[in-house]
Amino acid sequence: DIQMTQSPSSLSASVGDRVTITCRASQGISNSLAWYQQKPGKAPKLLLYAASRLESGVPSRFSGSGSGTDYTLTISSLQSEDFATYYCQQYYSIVSITFGQGTRLEIK
Amino acid sequence: QVTLRESGPALVKPTQTLTLTCTFSGFSLSTSEMCVSWIRQSPGKALEWLARIDWDDDKYYTTSLKTRLTISKDTSKNQVVLIMTNMDPVDTGTYYCARTYSSTFRSDFWGQGTLVTVSS
């Protein structure tokens, strides 16, 4: 299986901050990466796919980049509604789709 | 609009078989590229992808659970069923179904999830 390692596992930030979350794959995944946001007690919400393509309706302060094994999610200016847990997901292999362990974004 | 809803038992005993149903609306599983995926989440843990069924009846399972999972669809009822055999307490968690596109692997609509507890 392809392992996905997210960092940091938790992060404290303030409204207005720029935040970056990293996801590293155990092998190259050719931009086959999505990012999800999950709030407590809720289902995940798709933010980006194909590493950098913004899902319809998602604010433009969210962006994604990367290639090969290393990918990042950036929130350009944190809003109060952005405090949540974020997961990356690789889908390079259909029988080995895996998620990162999550990054919990908390209010400082 | 697109909605999905998971249903099934809240409590199962170890070694029993779990049957979960995803009932959806707003799209058809007979439409090209449409798929339904199952994902689960143990309490306080990360997400785990389980299985997917496509509009053309192709089926995919996570390698680690392949021998225990069966996914099927009833297009006329707009339902997808996931069966997991030989349940264990480590299978306790919230089970989600999600609409997925085969070409982009986007899971854009999710159900609210159903909590399954495995305990004797």
Describe this structure in words.
The complex is a heterodimer of chains A (108) and B (120). With 108 residues, chain A is mainly beta. In chain A, 0% of the residues lie in helices and 49% in strands. Chain A is built from no helices and 11 strands. In chain A, the strands form 2 sheets. In chain A, strands 2, 4, 5, 6, 9, 10 and 11 form a 7-stranded mixed sheet that branches. The termini of chain A are far apart. Chain B is mainly beta. In chain B, strands 2, 4, 5, 6, 9, 10 and 11 form a 7-stranded mixed sheet that branches. A 4-stranded antiparallel sheet of chain B has the order 1-3-8-7, with no helix packed on it. Chain B is globular, with a radius of gyration of 14 Å. Chain B starts with a strand and ends with a strand. The model of chain B has no long low-confidence stretch (mean pLDDT 97). The A-B interface holds A 1, 32, 34, 36, 38, 42-46, 49-50, 55, 87, 89, 91, 94-102 and B 39, 46-49, 52, 60-64, 66, 96, 98, 104-108, 110-113.
Total number of strands of chain A: 11
Which regions of chain A contain 5 or more consecutive residues with pLDDT less than 50? none
- What shape does the CA trace of chain A take? globular
Greatest contact between two chains: A-B, 25 and 23 residues
Mean pLDDT of chain B: 97
Question: What is the helix fraction of residues of chain A, given as a range?
Answer: under 10%
Sheet having the most strands of chain B? 7 strands, mixed
By secondary-structure content and strand pairing, the structural class of chain A works out as: mainly beta
